[in-house]
Write a structure and sequence with these properties.
23 helices; six-stranded mixed beta sheet; 64% helix; 600 residues; elongated; ABC transporter transmembrane region fold; Rossmann fold; alpha/beta
């Protein structure tokens, strides 16, 4: 009837991934079984009820002694009323149990989806895997917002499979009590019907996986179009993008239509089969001299059996259709779980002496060339260290290792002589703060964006940080001051204003080490000078690490680390490097000469 081995494997994977509470499965299936028993018992009562109304009893069946023993204490004139009352009570109780089962199932459904979303989100923001490279961001949104729900739906379908199987067994046992011959005839007929449905819907698994891929493409198209609105309008490509969007959306529509039709197929096929079967059974029962009461009860059980049978087949097909979503969530969690950084136990103390890179080498993936090779230098406290070099020299990789976004492939990074992996990760990162050319601001108020540096800070502290960052002046001129909402990525602010809000956030955090990654690269000269003035005032006697291409921005540094192709090629103060007439001096002369030509 079903491909048992693949189904069992898929259910194992689903239960492991969903991780529902231990009591969930037994409770849901137990309530479903109780509802099936109550419904079956109610239908079985049709036999004595119809007999009490005057139907003649046929040949004695297996069920007759049971009724005689249970109903003998009831006076004959009250028997019909008693059976009607019991029948109503069984139906009432069955529906009450069914409603409780629905509530428990929906509760578990929502709980599983919530936990999965939280787990996917947590591993997305915590894993050291660069998911921006290995996965499209739109794929991750699809996994969190869509496919986690599909996993919880899959779990509900798995429970329905169990409940329908139990219901099927209960009804078949009751039918066997009435007539073995009719039951055997019915099961053979249903088996052939199930095989026909399975044959017609065998592509549900493949179609479900195709739907997942089409949804990802649809998500990517929406994400890229919204993020590139200015580019689309600037190049007048609205018609082209509209065409691409409609094409992708239509592919999703057609795939979903096909999947919906596969899911719907068992319903009408099952109902038609049952109707034909009932007609055939009436003829068989007539030739077998089965009484009207027994036949009515048997047909009632059989007719009610079509619901669980249809659900059994539909749940299996729907589970096949959700296989792609389940695999997507499972694969993402497995991929992002593997490279989690080891967690130390020591609280990171205030930095007193230096951060040391000792023989550090790093590669991003096996088989790729080294991004850093045998790098060694110190970052002394209270000083400004500049790391300079052309693109691809390894500067940003050093910053990532300092933050422990990644760990070295070999060598160590130490703070006051203690390897970074021995520190609690969060406590170490709280000692640092980063400002880069690409400022990240939330679609929230200015006050909320500054307070991100310290969520416990009060309004007075937020304003003080903004004053130091030379941001308080322009903030007060905004319509709602500090409560002004600044749009996605702070789009309602200028580049210089965004940088100063980010600097205020950093100042509020009050880090031991401030990292500046090309923080002024995109600013005009006047804005850069204003920003640099605020920064110099704040950074005095603090530990600062500056990453830069332009050497004019690092001449005031206490120490310069010159890098090329993942190696340190020069290190020393600016005066020392000028006197050596090496790489730094030649690069400075080249940039200075190019700037002079550009200004003439």
């Amino acid at each position: 009837m079903m491909a048992a081995a693949p189904l069992f494997t898929r259910l194992q994977r689903l239960f492991r991934l969903a991780a529902a509470p231990a009591w969930a499965g037994s409770t849901i299936v137990g309530l479903g079984l109780a509802a099936a028993v109550l419904e079956g018992a109610g239908l079985f009562l049709f036999i004595p009820l119809i007999q009490s109304l005057g139907a003649s009893a046929p040949q004695s069946g297996r069920w007759q002694p049971i009724f005689d023993r249970v109903l003998s204490p009831i006076p004959e004139h009250l028997l019909t009323a008693f059976l009607v009352a019991v029948l109503c009570a069984s139906i009432l109780l069955k529906n009450a149990v069914h409603l409780v089962n629905i509530w428990v199932t929906r509760y578990i459904d929502g709980l599983v989806a919530h936990r999965l979303r939280a787990r996917v989100f947590d591993q997305t923001i915590s894993s050291c895997v660069d998911y921006r490279v290995e996965n499209k961001r739109s794929d991750i949104i699809t996994t969190i917002a869509n496919n986690t729900w599909k996993v919880s739906q899959g779990l509900s379908l798995a429970y329905r499979l169990m409940i329908c199987s139990c219901t099927f067994v209960v009804f078949v046992m009751l039918m066997l009590l009435i007539s073995v011959r009719l039951t055997f005839f019915s099961m053979v007929f249903l088996l052939f019907g199930a095989m026909a449905i399975r044959l017609a819907t065998r592509r549900a698994d493949e179609t479900g996986k195709a739907v997942v891929e089409e949804n990802k493409q649809f998500g990517l198209r929406m994400w890229e179009s919204i993020n590139a609105l200015q580019l689309i309008r600037a190049f007048a490509q609205e018609d082209y993008e509209r065409g691409r969007f409609l094409q992708t959306s239509d592919r999703v529509r057609r795939r979903l239509l096909k999947l919906d039709m596969l899911w719907a197929a068992p319903g009408p096929v099952s109902e038609i089969s049952i109707t034909v079967l009932i007609g055939a059974l009436v003829l068989v029962a007539q030739s077998a001299s089965i009484g009207i009461a027994a036949l009515a009860a048997f047909l009632s059980l059989l007719y009610r059996l079509q619901g669980p049978t249809r659900e059994l087949l539909q749940s299996k097909i729907a589970l096949d259709g959700l296989a792609g979503s389940i695999d997507d969530v499972d694969d993402f969690l497995r991929t992002t779980e593997r490279p989690f950084l080891s967690q130390g136990h020591l609280p990171a103390p205030a930095l007193e002496e230096a951060v040391e890179f000792r023989n550090v080498s790093f590669r991003y993936a096996p088989g790729q060339p080294l991004a850093l090779q045998d790098v060694s230098f110190n970052i002394p406290t209270g000083k400004t260290t500049a790391i300079v070099g052309e693109s691809g020299a390894g500067k940003s990789t050093l910053m990532a290792l300092l933050f422990r976004f990644m760990d070295p492939s070999s060598g160590e990074v130490l703070a006051d002589g203690v390897p970074l992996p021995e520190f609690d990760l969060r406590s170490w990162r709280k000692r640092l703060s980063l400002m880069s050319q690409e400022v990240h601001l939330f679609n929230d108020t200015i006050a909320a964006n500054i307070a991100y540096g310290d969520l416990d800070a009060g309004m007075a502290e937020i304003r003080n940080a903004a004053e130091i960052a030379k941001a308080d002046g322009f903030i007060r001129l905004l319509p709602d001051g500090y409560e002004t909402r600044i749009g996605d990525q702070g789009m309602r602010l200028s580049g210089g204003q965004r940088q100063r809000v980010a600097l205020a956030r950093t100042i509020l955090r009050n880090p031991d080490i401030l990292l500046l990654d090309e923080a002024t690269n995109a600013l005009d000269v006047e804005t850069e000078q204003a920003f640099q003035l605020a920064l110099d005032e704040y950074a005095h006697n603090r530990t600062v690490v500056v990453i830069a291409h332009r050497l004019s921005t690092v001449q005031a540094a206490d120490q310069i680390i010159m890098m090329a192709k993942g190696r340190v090629i020069e290190a020393g103060s600016p005066d020392e490097l000028f006197r050596r007439q090496g790489h730094f001096s030649r690069l400075h002369e080249f940039q200075h000469g190019r700037a002079a030509i550009g200004g003439s």
